[in-house]
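Re: that chain you flagged

S.,

Sorry for the slow reply, it's been a week of failed gels. I finally had a moment to sit down with the sequence you sent. For the record, here it is as I used it:
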Amino acid sequence: MAKAVCVNGYKRPAGAGADAGERQAARKRRKAGGGGPEEKSSRLSAALFGEDCEISRDQLYELLKYAALGKCHNATQPSWCRIYHQSQLAGVVVIVLREMSQLHFYKFYLQFKHLRKVFRHRFTLTPSTNFLASLCGEGANLEPQNTAQGLTSTSNECIPKNSDLECDPIIRKYGGKKRGLTGYMLTLEEQKKYDYPIKGSPRCKGYIYTECDQQRTDSSPLFGLDCEMCLTAKGNEVTRVSLVDAQGQCLLNELVKPESTVVNYRTRFSGITKKMLLPVKTRLPDIQTRLKKILPRDAVLVGHSLNGDLQALEMIHPSVIDTSLLFARNEGRRFKLKFLAKAVLGKEIQCEQKLGHDPAEDARAALELAQFFIEQGPAKAAELNLEMLLTAEVSQNKAALQPQGCRVQKQLNEPPHLPTPCFLDCLQVTGQKPLLLGRQELDSSGLRQSNLSISNKQVLRRALADVPLSTFSVIQFSLGPEYTASHLLAGLCEKVRSKLTDMLTIYAGPFEENFCLKSVKKEFGRCGPICSLTVVTETHEPYVCVQYEVLEAAQLAVESLNGAEIAGSCIKVQRPVSAAMLDCDVLIKELELDVENEGVIYVAGLKKSLTETDLQEEFSQLKDLETLFLPKDLQSGRHRNCCFLKFQKSQSAVDALEVINGWTVKGSKLRSRNALASGHLWRWIWQMNHNTGKQGGNILYEKMEQLSDSEQELRKKVKKLDHHVKKLYRSLQNNTLCIILFPGVNSTHGSQSGLGLMGIKDDGGRSAC
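Prediction finished late last night. Pasting the structure tokens below so you have them in one place:
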């Protein structure tokens, strides 16, 4: 995904931080109307386009910490956005809409009238179930203590509760019940996704097939495989191969001489030196032949990121278990083999005292990890709480790097087992009392469950009274557990995906019998990137169905090509007609008026040979141009034939539209319109469009009827929530940073990304930029 290019760049913040007393005094002066000319309003700046729009919890924490504490308490500007004149902030208010995700915001987009008209900064948020716990330092209750046993501590703090297990990525992937080894083998789709050599793939031409094509059962033999590679003129080439059987016996441990000239032996990791390879006569074809002879017809290969080993071996094997994927983590991350061996098996491998890795040792470790997982089951693997163990290991390693005197002094001065202070603790030290309202509240003992029957109306009433008295507030509104059932979430996901597909699709025709499809595709391609184009043959005369990748392209086709003469025919261009599409025109209009799209235009018809530099030069004459965003395909990395331009002033965007329409760049005629989905929504639509069937799963027909009833109630609930947020927002003082969080959904039935909206309230009641 391309990053946005800031044409004018960020400015450095002019105001230094202020302590709590100065900030309170500034608030009093503003409230009394005696601010004076020297006072400046706080502002928020962020370029949230493309991959920059995905924000982690740590990045969100950076923002909250700086906004609440400022520079004088050693807080630094967040890395992904900038607050100007932080000392003038009247306060920070975080509104959490529990049990809701980005999916809910766009499913009920028309109901969220206030949110979409006020907050111009939006970002995709990593789904989280314990945002408040991490905010309040409650992670200490789950964190393993530093014990003599190190990472294998079995204290209660290391054992997650059953409710936590449901959200563990291992349980979400495999469920809690044991299954045989075949249940953990990578499917063909997974092998393609993770770049495994596939039989018949053009990229694997010349690869050797192991011919292990007998059907696998839960009794099929496991073999651990690991290779060490060096860098040659050809790329990665094998220099050593190890294969072990299910009992850990080494069946093959051979040095291999590369075919090409070695550029880097990577001795630190491979343990291979030039001297070691000098007498070696074994070549890759010899190893391929030996592996084919050793492996039985129903063999299952086990390895850690085994795709790299098979690619280097230039071999194809149909049945594999990849331990880097078996012990699943969130967000596509993977545990290292060294860590898993220590945490799960209690073994030390890849020791620093040794020169390079021992492939036989690594192959054996991967095999034993798979055996543990198969024998103990996913629930037992999840109970190890690997994420917390890794955090503890990192902390121990950091502590070990400190000078011995500092560590001894620290141990003498600090009581044992104290969690690292969170910034809410720091707030209290500076005299600022944080406020938490909702189903979880903060008392002297930390975060605790409040009355679960408390209503959103009661939360709002308390917030209106208490928020003005606090400099940092977290207000929680709840959707309600009755609206979080798996089939309801799956149904909503399927409905949103279906509607997005229809909004991205147009039908055009009729055409003559032998019309030129190439010229039709070329004409419609000028509106934006095409996902698919097919000829409709069910009609009396031929039509075409075009599915675009971006909403703007489909809308541009409807607006500019309806009634046009293409391929010798005067055609009609329209979207599909269905019950869900009846409000399409209203939705398009509201997206166009969305405050996030203010001052942003969409430009199509770009040649793919154009670079960002070329486009900056072409568009440099446009007045007040602030940011250029050139979207790229998330899989291939190639940029599309369109871009988004963000202007500092809305009128400048209007003027640019008049100039750009019909403008020719490098022989290509441009088309443009107001943006509909320029920021985080562009990426989310792409993901929804390319993940068909992966989120929701199958939905029974009788449950769809329940969904229709629940959806009506949910629509009313969402409308009330939006009204509550509007009422609370209007009560805030000017210069208050307000952040709305849809935390996202993490469950055994799948996950949905969260969404964040943020802004600093100005005199007009909107968020200042």
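What I noticed first: The chain has a mean pLDDT of 80.

Talk soon,
D.
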